[in-house]
């Protein structure tokens, strides 16, 4: 019970603080990006919110983002690099207003970093190859993992099951095969 109250308080605080998009100043990132794109190319490739979230570590508004309530079958990939990150099979309704997953689809594609912003200690999740800020992981998720990967929709691109093969993610089709 105490764990749930603490998570609810933290989530409420984050939601309140993110009623506006928050993030680092634009000068934070170097000109050359790990993905191979320059910052100018990324600004052209991404929407303003996608750029702010992935490159400047911003947080999008809860309940006002593309995937918080998406129930379609498929996978979520990094908006910059296309790295496979999460599956709809591990997505659940967390009540936070952001897409939440109980585990990554490909744990080798994510990196965890300590984040002490917003007056709390959290674990930030970034994509390995593009170094995109994705969101945070919390320990108040469902079993069997007990984890809640709370991600920003703006950092993700959804690939529906019927497009997996066509878009080069055919190796994940078997996850969605009816048994």
How would you concisely characterize the structure shown here?
With 179 residues, the chain is an alpha+beta fold. It is built from three helices and nine strands, in the order αααβββββββββ.
Describe the structure.
- The longest helix has 16 residues, at about 1-15.
- It is globular, with a radius of gyration of 16 Å.
- The protein has one domain: Metal Binding Protein, Guanine Nucleotide Exchange Factor, Chain A.
- With about 180 residues, the protein is of the alpha+beta class.
- It is built from three helices and nine strands, in the order H-H-H-E-E-E-E-E-E-E-E-E.
- A six-stranded antiparallel beta sheet has the order 3-4-8-7-6-5. A three-stranded antiparallel beta sheet has the order 2-1-9, with no helix packed on it.
- Residues about 15-20 and about 25-30 have low confidence and may be disordered.
- It has helices at about 1-15, 40-45, 50-55, and strands at about 75-80, 85, 90, 100, 110-115, 120-125, 135-140, 150, 155-160.
Number of helices: 3
Average pLDDT over all residues = 86
Biggest sheet: strands side by side, in what order?
A: 3-4-8-7-6-5
Along the chain, the helix and strand elements come as HHHEEEEEEEEE
What is the 3D shape? Answer: globular
Give me the CATH architecture, please: Beta Complex
How far is it from the N-terminal to the C-terminal residue, by CA? 37 Å
CATH class (first level) name? Mainly Beta
Class from helix and strand fractions: alpha+beta
